[in-house]
What does this fold into?
Amino acid sequence: MNIIDITTKKLLVIIGLGLAVVANTYFYISKDDASAKPASPTQAQATLLKIGEKCLDFGERAVAKDTPIIEFQQLEREAKRTNVIQRCMTDNGYQQNTAWLKYAQPIAKANAQKSNISIDEAIINLSRKHMQVFAPVAGRPDYWVKK
It folds into this structure.
């Protein structure tokens, strides 16, 4: 009976130490996140450029082996590429800027009338172009914003 009590005590001490390490790690990480200063606009833009270039690279790699023969395959290739870019940006905490969408709607409407396509298709076409631009453009809201 004495051996069982010693084994149980050792087990409880090991479990207690393990929980202490986990709790200490959690508090250290959460303290680090809470004390982090918000990024300046310059830092935020530099981060967006860095992540954007990484996501563009992922998009290119996703379609590197695709060789379009007919026009439909080219459209599929471009859709696949932009989907990879969009998912990568979302995974890194970015989303489509609502200000960009408001900016793009009148442009898409004009493009739709010129090209005889739907407004939704014109928005998608404009979105595919602008989602790949990570540097600020004068007079246009950024496509991506941090969540």
In short: Residues 2-35 form the longest helix (34 residues). Helices lie at 2-35, 41-62, 71-91, 98-115, 119-130.
